[in-house]
Each structure stands twice: as C-alpha cells, then as structure tokens.
Amino acid sequence: MVADTTSINRSRQLFPGRGSFWLFGYGSLIYKAGFPYLECRPAVIHGWQRRFWQGSHDHRGTPEAPGRVATLIEAPGARCVGMAYRIPPEALGPLDLREKNGYLRFTTPLRFLDGGEDRGLVYIATEDNPAFLGPAPIPDMARQIARCRGPSGPNRDYLLELARSLRGLGEEDGHVFALEQAVEELSPHSDGVASP
Ligand code: SIN
User: Fold this and answer.
1) In this structure, which residue's CA is closest to atom 5 in ligand 1?
2) Beta carbons of 49 and 73 less than 8 angstroms apart
C-alpha cells in the first residue's frame, strides 16, 4: 500500500449524497477534534481493539524516528470506546490529510453509549501500510513513545491525553493504561512539574 493514503481515501465515498454522517474517533480524534461537527456522542464499536501499533512519521515522530499511535486491530469479542462526531462531508478533506500516514476510510456499525445505533466512518491503519509497526513488549513501546516527537508534539502527550480522555469517558483500556504507566515511570517529571 502507498505511504500517503489521501488519494485512495478521496475515492472511498462511503456515505454518498448524505448531508452529514457519523465519524468514530478512537485516538487523537477523541481529544483533539479540530474539524467542524454538528454533535458528538460517546460510542462503542465491537470486534476491534485499540493498539499503539501504527508508526507516526508526520505527527508524533519522523520517518527516521517514528512515534507510536493508535490503530484498530480486529479481535472477535473485543470492544473499543471512542467519540462519534456527526460531520458534514466537507470535514473529510482536512481529515484525509491528517490521517494520510497509513489510515484508510472504512465504515463500521456503532452503538452510542446513551442509546441507539448507526453506521459511521472510521480511519484504520491496516497492517499492510508502510508505517505499520505491529506489536512489541510494553516497556519497548513505552521507551519509543517517551523519546519520540514530531510536528504535532511529543508522542508522550498523545498517549497521556488519550488515557485522560478515556478515563473521562469511564473507560478502562488495559493496553493504553499499561503504556501510560510505563511511560510515566520512565519520565515522571516531564509533564512540566519541576523536580526538586
Ligand atoms: C482516530 O483517532 O480515530 C484515528 C487515529 C488518530 O488520529 O489518532
């Protein structure tokens, strides 16, 4: 698969003719929207788990030192809580650019935490994209996240913001929280609190 997915995504018209539709966010899209939306509701999708298995060359790392960011991995029985945004179609242009480092548009059934269900669009970085890193032991992933940074800031901030947002949604995500703990043990004072 190509390294830049922008043009593939432009040709994936998944909700043709609709004035608005749902976008499901499970990574940075939970805590940093940055696009116009009409409403947002916490939601869950089933059969997928959130994993820090995607490399980031353009946001939280560089091609030489990629960071690690979230993607979804198919896992029967798993669930992933995130945020659903009802967006106008024109929001997808900037989103395709933001997610261009390996993420493709897909559709998914989603269930709103306050009741009801619908289909939505989700960006997933599949294993065949050139930036995909795959699994590694938690301490190794934590060291990579602790040392990497890119044009959008430190990789560490991506992880910690996501963990904070998931807690705000009342969600227990063992993978994210294990990484958070491992990263904080590596650099407990790098959150701006001066050490004595
Ligand atoms: C998402 O948040 O839904 C996709 C991954 C990301 O942009 O962090």
Assistant:
1) 27
2) yes
